[in-house]
Design goal:
Elements (H helix, E strand, L loop, with lengths): L1 H57 L3 H27 L4 H29 L3 H84 L1
Helix pairs in contact: 1-2, 1-4, 3-4
Length: 209
């Protein structure tokens, strides 16, 4: 009975470990890694679109500016899509707070960026360049800081989940080893008791002869 009990404990520890690892692995894949990927995509597209905006206000060729505008709008659409994907995967209050700060900064930058583009469309390049340098650049730097915060948050959370996985395995391994040793000792004791019973039975049979 004790042996069976020890085997049950050992099995219970193993099942608990599997459940814990399944939960942590799910969080790592569905949230941390996914969030990091989408945040990195937002950052890449944001930097690319901002670089094109700079080229837009500096280029004196109207036809070239129109081509740049097409690329800028593609970049804006890519950022919007990546931000939507990220928002759908938000799973914690801290993540939600960081994303909200990024959303506010994104809105502020987008407002200035659109005004710069509007001035370029009207061929008011001098005004567009002034607005770009005085307002768009600072707004972009603020926004980029919040995007980097998204990347850093997901990287940090991924590291934390990885450490939790290692700790869970270490803790469960210790429990399994203890249970194994107890199971081994119980097996030895059980064998000794059986052996003793057999010896006593043999001695009793000899005594009756």
């Amino acid at each position: 009975g004790l042996v069976l009990l020890a085997m049950g404990v050992l099995g219970g520890i193993a099942l608990a470990l599997l459940a814990t690892l399944r939960g942590l692995a799910g969080e790592l894949i569905e949230h941390s890694l996914s969030g990091m990927y989408h945040a990195a995509t937002v950052r890449a597209n944001t930097v690319g679109a901002a670089s094109l905006l700079r080229n837009l206000v500096l280029d004196d060729d109207k036809a070239q500016r129109q081509a740049i505008l097409v690329d800028i709008r593609k970049g804006i659409d890519a950022v919007t899509a990546a931000r939507a994907e990220y928002e759908n995967a938000v799973a914690s209050d801290e993540d939600r707070r960081v994303f909200r700060e990024s959303t506010d900064a994104h809105a502020a930058f987008s407002k200035v960026r659109d005004k710069v583009i509007s001035l370029v469309d009207e061929d008011k390049l001098a005004e567009a360049r002034t607005l770009y340098n005085e307002s768009a650049v600072p707004a972009f730097q603020t926004y980029l800081t919040t995007v980097n915060a998204l990347v850093d948050y997901n990287k940090r959370r991924g590291d934390e989940v990885g450490e939790e996985i290692v700790e869970a395995i270490s803790t469960a391994s210790g429990g399994i080893w203890v249970s194994f040793i107890v199971l081994l000792l119980l097996g030895v004791v059980n064998a000794l008791l059986i052996g003793r019973s057999v010896v006593q039975a043999v001695l009793q049979q000899r005594a009756h002869r």
